[in-house]
Amino acid sequence: MKKKALSLLMGACLMLTGSPIVHAAETSSVRIARLDIKPECLEAFLSAVREEMATSLRVEPGVLALYAVADRQDPTKLTFFEMYVDDAAYERHRRTPHFQKYYQTTKDMIARRVLLEAVPVELRDRRASDATPPAK
């Protein structure tokens, strides 16, 4: 994935979230996944991934943020941006029953998978900005 596209994706994900603010200082593990879903499996995949993401954020303190976006031109092409407190939290996440259920349910729905491990450089969103609010 090109740097500019990755930056745009990260920015869009961070700006659109309704979740609590996540600071770079608390994030040491970032994962990006690009998945191509078989078209006939898209709705079932989305249902499974929504359930898994909601459960992960509800029960795993080491999971800071999970974002999923679809390509506007081809909704079967999904990109995930995930933030964890550290690599151990990511490994614990992969061993949870809810992740294993998601994995087993969806593994045959995925036509192509590209995974990227990243290191946070700067993570910001409008709510986490250091900018001083304008005077009234």
N→C terminal distance: 43 Å
Care to count the β-strands? 4
CATH architecture: 2-Layer Sandwich
What structural category do the secondary elements indicate? Answer: alpha+beta
Fraction in beta strands: 25-35%
Strand count, sense and barrel status of the largest sheet are: 4 strands, antiparallel
Q: What sequence of helices (H) and strands (E) makes up the elements? A: HEHEEHHE
The CATH class assignment is Alpha Beta
Tell me the helix content. 25-40%
Low-confidence stretches: 1-21
Strands in their spatial order, largest beta sheet: 2-3-1-4
Total domain units: 1
CATH topology: Alpha-Beta Plaits
Q: Average pLDDT value?
A: 83
Principal-axes shape call: globular
Radius of gyration: 16 Å
Helical region count? 4
Task: Tell me what the structure shows.
- It is a single chain.
- This protein has 136 residues and is an alpha+beta fold.
- It has a single domain, classed as Alpha-Beta Plaits.
- Helix content is 38%, strand content 25%.
- It has a 4-stranded antiparallel sheet with strand order 2-3-1-4, sandwiched between helices.
- The longest helix has 18 residues.
